[in-house]
Amino acid sequence: MPYRPKTELEENAMEILKKRFARGEIEREEFEERKKILNQSN
């Protein structure tokens, strides 16, 4: 599989996800699930 650098959008999505988790807006289970989905799009 060829290497593809992350786009700004994907990085921003991950940053938003981390911030939402840190603020307690989402539970760990949802955080982990969304993280997997974002990582699959790389």
From TrEMBL:
Residues 13-38 form the SHOCT domain. This is SHOCT domain-containing protein. It holds the Pfam family SHOCT.
